[in-house]
Design goal:
Length: 164
């Protein structure tokens, strides 16, 4: 089968930055399953996998605007420590802070009486290199199409009285 819309695709992948530093990989784990066309992965990555076949490996480079966006300096703000929400505890570098409208910001620095928060995705502004191997392709079930993601496949046929 070929990677096309409304198929469940299983992939192994690794991601590196421009310097070859490993960002993420699932090669030591189970393959990632996603519904092709279901907005489960980045649209640019999904488009680059269109037409691939089982056991095909593709090298894909995504520029920042194709991945997590360009870095936006306007998403970096400075807040007085005294105005930092007390219910979040003491601010620490790397802390993720939920903000209004469901967004998140990361504490990137503590400078004197200021907390520096960054609303950019940690990979914003980075060119990403993917190595992706397609290991399985199957048709999505009606339930998977409705739910817009893969569902666990039942491996046994159960009869009356089964409690699986």
């Amino acid at each position: 089968m070929v990677v096309t819309k409304n198929n469940i695709i299983s992939i192994y992948y690794s991601v590196t930055d421009m310097d070859g530093n490993k960002i993420d990989s699932n090669k030591e784990f189970e393959p990632l399953q996603y519904l092709h066309g279901g907005e489960n992965i980045m649209p640019s990555l999904e488009a680059a996998l269109e037409g691939a076949v089982i056991n095909e490996e593709r090298k894909i480079t995504l520029e920042p605007h194709q991945a997590y966006g360009d870095y936006n300096d306007q998403l970096v703000v400075s807040v007085d420590k005294e105005k930092f929400p007390a219910n979040l505890g003491h601010p620490e570098k790397g802390m993720i802070v939920d903000i209004n409208e469901g967004g998140e910001m990361m504490v990137v620095a503590l400078e004197g009486d200021k907390v520096i928060l960054d609303g950019n995705h940690p990979l914003a502004g980075k060119t990403l290199h993917f190595s992706v191997k397609v290991v399985a392709v199957r048709e999505a079930t009606i339930n998977e199409l409705q739910q817009k993601h893969p569902l666990k496949q039942q491996t046994e046929i159960c009869g009356p009285g089964c409690c699986c």
